[in-house]
Amino acid sequence: MNTKVLFVLATGLVLSTAKVSAQATDCATTASIAYEHAKVKNYAAAEEPLWKVRKECPTYSVATYQFGEKLLKAKLKKAAAGDKVAIAKEMIQLLKERFQYFPAKTKIGDMHSTIGQLMYDNKIGSKEDQFAELHKAWTEDKKNVDNPKNVYTYFSLLVDLHGEGKKELQEVFDLYDGVIEKIEDEESDKAKTIATITDKEESGTALSSKEKKTLKRSTIILSNYSKVKAGVNQKIGDLADCKNLIPLYTGQFEAKKTDINWLKGAAGRMSAKDCTEDPLFFKLVEALHKAEPSAKSAYYLGLLALKDKKYSKALEYFKQSEQLETKASDKAKVNFKIAEVYNKNLGSKGKARTYYRKALQQKPSMGICYLRISKMVAASANACGDTKFNKQAVYWLAANYAARAGKVDPSLKSTASKTAASYRGLAPSKTDIFNNPGVSSVKIGCWIGETVRVPKL
Question: Residue 9 pLDDT more than 70?
């Protein structure tokens, strides 16, 4: 190879390297301009350079797609009705491109559920197409389907498709169980955070700005999931009533009576809908206990004993069920039932509170437990206070419990607020506090055994 050829090759290599280097520099410069505008939500200025990076440097940074999604969301929100479909389709394409170039930084559940929701909101494709996207998200990456709206849409579409004769009723029930489980897991997570911060707040310790933000965000998310749960239960409506469940399961019983999962699901739904008076429920429980003595079968046997007013036997079954259960939310359900027996049937407030608290430890969003404790505390004001002031102070504690119910369970917010206000009205007044100087807290006796702070009125 002569010197001239070598020179040409070398020159070509240098020019090629320089071109790649220049392109990389151009990508970085354009991206920097786009990202800076996008960070301050100046999307009008960000759009042109951002789309230039997306087209010419698709693998430059995942930030291109993150800012691009925010830009299109803002654009979609302000768009006229006739422009929304085109923008939604553009966002769907953007999400797919992100997955193409950055699969390791893209959550399957989030991507497909977002696409499905965009299709549903903007009437893109058929119901089957929309459902298919959400179904893919749910079945392949359920933990990252974390938008309450997406969860509701997924279930709602299935119910609609069943109504059109395209999906079986059993599919609706199966998804209902999964959706409720998902919602309650999310509720428990956020309610635990709220309860922890509330404990600190009620102790008189000032919250940090970060804790205040966390409390606000957790409360909003919890409220959204509470609305979705109500929506899901409303959507399933009459489909899950006894009039539909009993004939459905009666027809399936002989073929399914050795199928443990089917027996658990059928008995669980009949129990949830208070269909326990029908003889079919007893047959289901009997078959379930015979096939696999378990936490569920023990729980249902407890329900049957409770119906017959055999309270000791019912407690025996419920406690056996609680020991056998492995899932926290299911343990909470059983402990709540035990507490109810002690509270309503046996009149043992101290034991009832113990089990309500156990239920709350296992499922922090079970606000009804706080309301139950609140009511028991208030009912014991005269018995557990030794002076007029101390007896009235019991209502402060009752009000605190009631208020907490609304914080961890938004569906109880109205009831909890009214209950708390009612109890505060029975508590010591400003004059009473003035006439008891130096009293900063009151120790409450008998089964309550708690101390309540005197509030600054």
Answer: no
